[in-house]
Amino acid sequence: MFKYSLKRIVSMCITLFLIATITFILMRSIPGGPFTSERNLTPEIEKALMEKYNLDAPLHEQYFDYMKGLLKGDLGVSYKKKGVTVNEIIAQTFPASAEIGVLAVVLILVIGIPLGVLSALKQNSAIDYVIMIIATIGVTIPSFVIGTFIMYVFGEKLAWIPAGGIEEWKGYIGPVIALAGFSVAYVTRLTRSTMLEVLRQDYIRTARANGLSKWRVIGKHALKNALIPVVTYVGPMIASILTGSFVVEKIFAIPGMGKYFVESVTNRDYTIIMGITIFYAAIYIVMVFIVDIAYGLVDPRIKLKD
After folding, report:
1. Residues 183, 237: contact at Cβ < 8 Å?
2. Beta carbons within 10 angstroms of residue 119's beta carbon
3. Which residue has the higher pLDDT, 208 or 68?
4. Residue 31 to residues 26, 36, 37, 61, 64, Cα–Cα distance (Å)
5. CA distance 242 to 234
6. Per its UniProt record, what InterPro entries does this chain match (predicted)?
């Protein structure tokens, strides 16, 4: 396990380095610069700004300077927000995105997995049909539609939830449901399909023939194997949800990472784009690593080779 973990950590560092390099090259390949869209900006002022942020240096010098800072954990300074570093922006915005993300993940697992198991156990029954109809609708409706509906009906018409922000607990209801809607439906469908496949296996029939109770067979034997594809999906899903959704954050006026990321793309704020991209990639890579470790916990038959 130790050797495997060490190899994966080295692989993760190399992957992160490649992502940082590719992102840097792509940002510098975009025509124009972070100050070309400024109005009434004289050539002298633009030149001074380029010198201040070392953007007039050769590309390889800019690259090595950025990578040196990255090794120290310094993601650079925003070109558009004066005196604000990318580290500060992430530190200020990530908690809001993470709070909603954690609640959404809990909602997805608490609702999606039990509904999928129930649907599989009640295959071709009225319960199964109702769950699958709802899950199919949930997969097809985008998060911004769910968010807009919740905000309009429950926020403006009924006034059951705040019109925006997360200053009180009711403010979390709308964004969490909107963010979790698709994944709840997807996890339900995925759990049902894998559970049905596992229930048809010979070892399940053997366990039942040996006199084991129905719920023991399901809980101890069937569910663990059925959860492996779900775990594979949930890992990257958590990374995506924790870093925030711009659409959901925009609808519910939440100051999360998604808002600043989209604004930085529009403003060509290279350091914020690269910083948030690298931060998201790091979370994604770590979650994939955790998923690999979780395989062995869900199913002891899976061994991680050093």
Report:
1. yes
2. 25
3. 68
4. 10, 10, 11, 19, 21
5. 12
6. BPD_transp_1_N, MetI-like, MetI-like_sf
CA torsion sign for 66, 70, 72, 77 is positive
Contact criterion met (CB below 8 Å) for 17 and 64: no
**Cα separation, 102 vs 89, whole angstroms:** 20
Give the pair of three-digit tokens for residue 196.
């049905």
Q: CA angle at residue 35 from 78 to 75, to 5 degrees?
A: 20
The answer to whether residue 21 scores a pLDDT higher than 70 is yes
**Cα–Cα distance measured from residue 128 to residue 5, given in angstroms and rounded to the nearest whole number:** 41
d(CA 212, CA 282): 44
The DSSP call for residue 221 is I
Structure tokens at 109: 């697992």
> Under a CB-based contact definition with an 8 Å cutoff, are residues 175 and 97 in contact?
no
CA distances from 137 to 27, 55, 144, 267 (A): 38, 49, 14, 37
- Asked whether the predicted pLDDT for residue 36 surpasses 90, the reply is no
Going by C-beta distance under 8 Å and a sequence separation of 6 or more, which residues neighbour residue 256? 93, 94, 96, 97, 100, 244, 249
Report pLDDT digits (tens) over 144-155: 888 888 888 888
Give me the mean pLDDT over the 67-86 stretch.
85
- Tokens 């955790």 correspond to what residue? 290
Angstrom distance (rounded) from CA 36 to CA 62: 19
Rounded to 10 degrees, the C-alpha dihedral 305/193/285/274 comes to 160
Which residues, in sequence order, are bridge partners of residue 85? 77
Phi-psi region of 305 (alpha: psi -120 to 50; beta: other; left: phi over 0): beta
Q: Does pLDDT of 108 surpass 90?
A: yes
Give the DSSP H/E element, type plus range, for residue 166: none
Looking at residue 103, what is its pLDDT? 92
> What is the average pLDDT across 250-270?
79
